[in-house]
Amino acid sequence: MTDPAGRTEPRRRSRSDFRVALVLPRRGPAGIFGLECHAAAELAAAEIDAAGGVAGRSVQFVHVDAGGDPAAVAATVRDLVDSGAVDAVTGWHLSNARQAIAREVGGRVPYVYAAAYEGGERSDGVLCSGEVPGDQIIASLRWLRTELRLRRWFIVGNDYVWPRGSAKATRAGLEGSDIAILGERFLPLGVDDERAWDRVLADITAADPDGVITLLVGSDAVRFNRAFATAGLDATVTRFSPFTDETVVLASGSAATGNLFISAGWFAGLASAAAAEFSAGFARAFDLVNGAGPIGESAAPQPGTMAETTYSGVHLLAGIATTSVPTVADARRAFEDWGWDSPHGPVDLHRGAARHPVHLAVARGVELDVIARVR
């Protein structure tokens, strides 16, 4: 089968399993999410297999570390596809890796990208199942404006496509409103220089905003939260993040999470049977994959949104299959119109845009308290 660009789908070997390149970060600032995403993917695979597999085939993962250079990550995935070693691609990773992978394998195998992202992905055979800025960021800022009268914001993000694209979409989405973006600063991924964070804090102080929108990844968000609190800014300036979860809050520590709001489709504190079932299954999978705690106690953290979207992405990939393992044709059909149930509620995919229920939570120490549904 040939895609519109003339590329050919790899010939699949006859076998009894459905092999998926699972692209997750094991290092770098996003590496903080790797263990939970792995456990969530294994939980999804176990559930799919228990229900009969994918066209009768067992789900097997081929692990790819997404924590390195995006071009190198994409080359690894391309080689797996070229050799026929995998039938599909999924996982939670950053948008710079997604763009590189899509260039290499778009139109060749189905690729479900499970993270929240900046929007606009149209590569052949690629399904983006995460939240986009209009649903997640704009809706939350409007709620914070109405309920807390927060109007003036400063953006701090990492310097790559997701933060910059999200900042651009946020500015566009706020046009015509009285919510203002006063300034923005973008730092390279993996910044551990205290002086760099000090300069950012000085810029924030000079701008005198009501709040800061943080578009930072993993350990970079942790460093910023700690520096922000150490400077005493958390007493007077609100933080809002669409990319922070239970894992980042726990790593930041209770002293660094004051006046911090977070939006996402999933939170571990959602009050639903589906959410409770996923959390319980995640704990079992985490202990199985990573080892139980002392004296047989569970070592599992609360599952964050990165884990839940990884889990949902694996289920979406399996769910689009028709009479065989998923194909690019299946992904093209799902791109136009598809729906599925996730632990945080129903998700609709229409012309490549996934629409999620979106909730807003506030940090209370190292716990997240869901306070509103904003979409």
TrEMBL record:
Keyword Signal: yes
KW Lipid metabolism (keyword) present: no
UniProt keywords, alphabetically: Signal
Classification via CDD domains: PBP1_NHase (cd06358)
Annotated ranges, domain Leucine-binding protein: 19-359
Signal peptide coordinates: none
Any Pfam family: Peripla_BP_6
Bilayer-spanning residue ranges: none
Family as reported in the entry's similarity comment: Belongs to the leucine-binding protein family.
Name recorded for this polypeptide: Aliphatic amidase regulator
Organism: Mycolicibacterium bacteremicum (Mycobacterium bacteremicum)
